[in-house]
Design brief:
Layout: H1 2-25, E1 31-39, E2 50-54, H2 62-78, E3 82-85, H3 98-106, E4 113-116, H4 120-124, H5 126-135, E5 139-140, E6 144-148, E7 156-160, H6 167-177, E8 183-187, H7 194-198, E9 204-207, H8 222-225, E10 229-233, E11 237-241, H9 251-254, E12 259-267
Parallel strand pairs: 1-12, 2-3, 3-4, 4-5, 7-8, 8-9, 9-11
Antiparallel strand pairs: 2-12, 6-7, 10-11
Length: about 270
Amino acid sequence: MKKLLTLTAIIGTLVLIFYFYFHNIGRVRANVNEIFIISTDIPKPFDGVRIVQISDFLVRSEICLELLENVVDTINNVNPDIIFFTGNLFLPTGIPFESRVADLLGNLNANLRKIAVFGEHDLLHYELTENVLNEAGFRILNNESDQVFYQSPIGINVIGANPANDRDMMDQLLEIHTLDDRLNLLLMSKPTFSTVSFEHPIQAQFSGHCLATQDASNQASPCFQFFNGKYQFADRFTLHVSSGLARFHTITGLFRQPSIDSFLLIRE
């Protein structure tokens, strides 16, 4: 009986320690995932270039600003060349913090470019999100593309999709903006229509975390199929789904640490 009580006390203590960490420390500290993108399509000057992807802030309270401040410091220590933001900046309760969010995002340093796309939540506060991202120095791609150059006239082509696009609109967007002689990277807030991306000369798609906007329990949903992580389509197309920075009010969300993805481009 005494051993049982001792074991129960130990387990209870460990549970409290884990709860304290993930509830008070883990939610304001982001984990950095190191990922390699290896391809013959990477231009020689971009060999060794680092891209950082951040997604799904869903700012809603003061604690989110503390997380954002730590995220900025963490990213700047990584010293990225390019930063991608793949959507969903605010929840309605976070709108009063817009100026502070703009200041914090403006402190992000990228050697070449900061590029953003809208998420579904951003469409609800379109002008506000647009102003914050512009003020922070992001180039917003809304069904358009942007070429990034580095020490050479041969650059990489970044395409940004609006989250409201349907399949036909995505197909038309990629038909117009993909370039046969470039590394084509697609930014879209959700992993929806990744099969459409595969039909075009897109080498990689960067998307946000599905639970920011959808229910991953629906097996017919792309959120169930492409929930989080890296998904390889044959040998030429890769889908990267970020787990994002927001914490969700679920059991699994309690123990999920905010996440930043850091990609190193390696030319084969």
